[in-house]
Amino acid sequence: MTITYQQLAYEQRCQISALKKRGCSQREIAEIIGKGHSGALVTIVERVTKYTVSAQVNSKSAVDVTKATISLLNPFKDIIHTITADNGKKFSYHEIISQALSTEVYFAHPYSSWERRLNENTNGLLRQYFPKNTDFKKVGQIEVKRALMRLNSRPRKDLNFKTPALIMG
After folding, report:
1. What confidence tens digit (pLDDT) does each residue in 137-152 have?
2. Residue 143 CB contacts under 8 Å (≥ 6 apart), including other chains
3. How is residue 36 annotated by DSSP?
4. pLDDT digit string (tens) for 78-94?
């Protein structure tokens, strides 16, 4: 199977920026790796509302990450316009994600984490609940949901001190 990547060209970044200004739903996706690479959290953040969803995966394999991504985003399928991912092998089944969710999947340029800065920042916030040495195979789904509830209920300055949960409705 040949893997093709759609990296963000300048024009595409401009189009995504215009969609964001119109309030269209776009997502950034990444993962937080667990202690000793055992388990991970797939995190997806909506750019306009900053609403975050996440799921535990046993490994960062492309199969596990693809299943988790489709499962997390299926409820939002009708409103998603784009997904921006990093360049890891875990997103090598991006075409399956794109077909399942009827959306475009783009990749940030290598070593350009600023193209997914919201997701990087959100993963940093999640690290307050799950420090670097966390073994995600030992973390319960209830703990993950509790951390997400707190994160989505946190007022954000750039949302005029509203919460992502309130804006998402």
Report:
1. 889 889 999 999 999 9
2. 129
3. G
4. 888 889 888 888 888 99
Evaluate whether 23 touches 108 at the Cβ level (below 8 Å): no
* Strand ordering across the sheet containing 40-46: 52-57, 40-46, 25-33, 80-85, 104-107
Does the predicted model carry a pTM greater than 0.85? no
Domain 12-159, CATH class in plain words: alpha beta
The position carrying tokens 């750019």 is: 47
Cβ proximity of 60 and 40 under 8 Å: yes
Enter the tokens of residue 127.
């690290």
Domain boundaries, the chain: 12-159
Place of tokens 């075409």: 95
- Tokens describing residue 84: 């921006």
The CA distance from 169 to 17, in Å, is 23
